[in-house]
Amino acid sequence: MPWYDEDEVEGEPNVAQTYERQDHGVTEPRVHWRERDPYICTLEIRLPRDEVPKLKSLYGPLLQWIDPTFQLLHIEESDKNSFITRFVQDDPKGRGNESHLAKEQLNTQSLSVVLFLREESKYQLNAGFAKGYLQSPPWGFHHKIELANPMDMRTVARQDYYGSSPDLPLWTVCSVHYGNEQLRFNIFVNNFEKMKEFYSILTGCETSASKPGFCSFDLYSQPGLEIKLSLKYSPCLQPHASRLSALKFNIRSVLYVKQKLRLVLTPNGENTWLTRDPDGNVILLSRDENDVFEVGVAGQSTEASDSGRWSETASEDSSWEMCSDTSCSSFSCESGCESVTTRNEDEDKDSF
To answer: Is the pTM of this model over 0.70?
Structure first.
C-alpha cells in the first residue's frame, strides 16, 4: 500500500483466518479483515476527459499519503453518458429518481468520504489542514450532523459535510486522538436494515460498530491506517444515487453473492458487472482472480433509529454548483439526540 512501508506490528500474527459456510451449495469464503485485499472496496468516479485532472487536483491534498496514486479513489475518463449514468437512468423502478423529496428532508448524494485524521502529524495532511481546505473554494458547505448528550442535549460531536458538485461524493474530516487514522466510505441510506444485511453479505464482514441508524464494516487495516465502510440513516436526509460515482467491490465469490442476494448482474467489461443495492445505488462487482464464475447463471433482483433531536434550516451558502442540494426550506424533525442542519457554525467540536 502507498501510505506506510513499516513492517507488521511486532507480535501480531500474519496468518489469514478463514472459514467457509455452505449455503444452497455455494461456498462463502471469509478472510480475517487484517488479511484482506486493501482494494476490496474502491470509489469509482467517471468524468469527461478535461474534468479528470481538475478533480484529481482538487482531491489530491486530502489524499496526500493515504492514496497519492488514486487507487482507492479511482478517477477515470468517460463519455458524458457514463455507464453509471446510463445504469441509473435505466432503473426500471425509478430508484434513482429524486422527485420524491419530502418537505422535511434534505436532498443529498448517497456517497461520502470520511477522513479521521490526527491534529498533529509528520505529514502535511492532518485534521486542521484538511478542515481548513474543505472550507475554501471551490468547496461548498452542504450540511452538518450533530450528536447531543441525551441528558442535557449539549452537542458533543459534529461532522461538517462539504461538496464540490451535486453528483460527486461529499467529504468530511474528523479529529482522532488515538489509534489509527481512517479512510471511511460512507453511504447515507433509506432502508437501513436491508442495506446493513446486503453489505454484510457483500463484504463478508460483520459490523464492527453498530447503533440505531449507523453501522460500520472493517475492510482493511495496517499500521497507521484503517479502511472502513459505513452506513448512516437519518430521517432528515433523502439520499439519491450518484450519476458520476459508484463503489466497486472485489468479490471472492461472485456466484455466492449473486445467488445469496438474488442479484441481476449486467456485464461491464472483463470480470466486472453492474448491479444495485437495496436503495438503488449503482455498485460494481469485480471478480477475484481465484474465483470461477459462470455469467449465464440466472438471478433475480431484490428490493431490498437514529436516536436524536433533528432540526434543519436552509443553507445560507450555495456556492459552486451546490444550489440543487442545499435548497431545502426550514423545518424541524425530531428523533432523539442528533440534529442535521445546512447552516455551518464556527464552533469547533470533536467529531464522531
So the answer is: yes
